[in-house]
Amino acid sequence: MEQHGPGCPGSVLFGCELTANTKSYTFQVDEEDDSNHILALSVVCLTDGAKDECNVVEVVGRNHENQEIAVPVANLKLSCQPLLSLDNFKLQPPVTFRLAAGSGPVHLTGWHRIVHREDASFEEDDDLSEEEEELPPIMPAKK
After folding, report:
1. CB-based burial of residue 108 (10 Å sphere; 0-12 exposed, 13-18 middle, 19+ buried)?
2. Which of 28, 86, 109, 133 has a CA-to-CA distance to 56 between 20 and 30 Å?
3. What does the DSSP 8-state code read for residue 81?
């Protein structure tokens, strides 16, 4: 199980706010950076000043055919669902968050994980050594 958070090396806190004035936020990394970047969203919530209206948050990205797609990930309303846990929903940049309905403010939080190439090969080696370990055969019980 891949971990994210303060105990995970290479992870930094991420947060952004969507409002009536700022309807979208794009998370992107330097194209020249050869590291792997993962954005793991943990919570999306209404913050102070939100009205009791539906606030729909979409993630805008690209599908396998490189076409832009928008997928709603949260529909928040102050009186019935002011927050939603996204359980470290993983995205690869670039990705745009858009307030498709409502006026917010809606806050998104999570972790930006940076895996450097040398770290990635080290993790792969660990995975291989775990797979190569053989368990002793199961012996029948003695009566």
Report:
1. buried
2. 28
3. B
User: CB atoms < 10 A from the CB of 78, how many?
Assistant: 14
pTM above 0.85, yes or no: no
What are the pLDDT tens digits along the chain (143 aa)?
455 444 556 789 999 999 999 999 999 888 777 788 899 999 999 999 999 999 999 999 888 898 999 999 999 999 999 999 999 999 988 999 999 999 999 999 999 998 876 644 444 444 544 555 666 666 666 66
Contacts of 120 (CB under 8 A, 6+ apart): 36
* Cα torsion through 45, 48, 52, 57, rounded to 10: -30
Instruction: Tell me the DSSP string of 11-75.
Output: EEEEEEEE-SS--EEEE---TT--SEEEEEEEEEEE-TT--SS-EEEEEEEE-TTS-EEEEEEEE
143 vs 140: CA distance, rounded Å: 9
